[in-house]
Amino acid sequence: MTIYSGCKIFGRSILILQGSKLGYEEPVTLKNCQLGPQVELKGGFFRDAVFLKNVSVGSGSNVREGTILEEESRVAHSVGLKQTILHFNFTPNQDKATPSLIGDVPRGVMLNQRPIFLGGQGGLVGPCRLEFGTVTAAGSIIRIDELRPGRLIFSGTGRGGSIPFMPGMYQNIKRIVLNNITYIANLIALMQWYAYVRSQFISDDFTEPLFVALKEKLRMAIDERIQRLKALSQKMPDSVIAYQNYTKENASSRILKQKNEFLERSDELEDYFRSQENIAVKENLLHFCDRWAR
Fold it and tell me: DSSP letters along the chain, please?
């Protein structure tokens, strides 16, 4: 194990196995993380995460709780898991006259303006200005100024544009809920895989403490997603009002029913998720592994 100068390590549940390297490119801050063998964290901040054998993470990274990087995973520099990181590079003319202004200082310091939301996997091509209340769709590269408040900006392979944005309306709540259910179901399935299959392969490279930490982080992820879905359901009364105000006589009774049913059955949905966490699937999983091994 190699720990380069400037690194800081905190927490009672720290685990670092043989061959790992911390802080080769810049200092690492590590808190309550568990590292398998030959893990290389080149620089950045890491908290409540698990890194299995031969994981490599570049410098400038910010990896937070509930993160699991399995064997051989590779992460480039300046990557934030659950974070958005913006970069401003030199222009083709070798200058750096490309600052982007998101909101402004005079109103921003008062903390009474609507937030600006930048969707994931997107970016700003400076110099660019965005007004308070602006929302950029995921995957959009913003190249124009938007100085009108409360607008949704989108771009892609087709023609981009900007349309009014109504906070909290959730027009496609069914898709949002179904995708969340599918995601949580997959997390529960992965927990079963760890519990009944990965548990059979405890070794020097995959120790018992590392296995326990793995399940702990996955439990954090499941709990967080269930809580987020429950919190979303509590927004439905306001969402119904926002939707009716926006669509007026064109409001869809089907969409209104979906919103109300989501709120009414949110406790039932949570109880169902909890019941599935302890479902007995050991025999089926081991049977699958036996057939796969052949």
Answer: -EE-TT-EEE-TT-EE-TT-EE-SSS-EEEES-EE-TT-EE-SEEEESEEE-TT-EE-TTEEE-TTEEE-TT-EE-TT-EETS--------TTS------EES-HHHHTTT-SPPPEE-TT-EE-SS-EE-TT-EE-TT-EE-S-B-SSSEEEE-SSS--EEEE--TT--TTHHHHHHHHHHHHHHHHHHHHHHHHTGGGG--SSS-HHHHHHHHHHHHHHHHHHHHHHHHHHTTHHHHHHHHHHHHGGG--HHHHHHHHHHHHTHHHHHHHHHHHHT---HHHHHHHHHHHH-
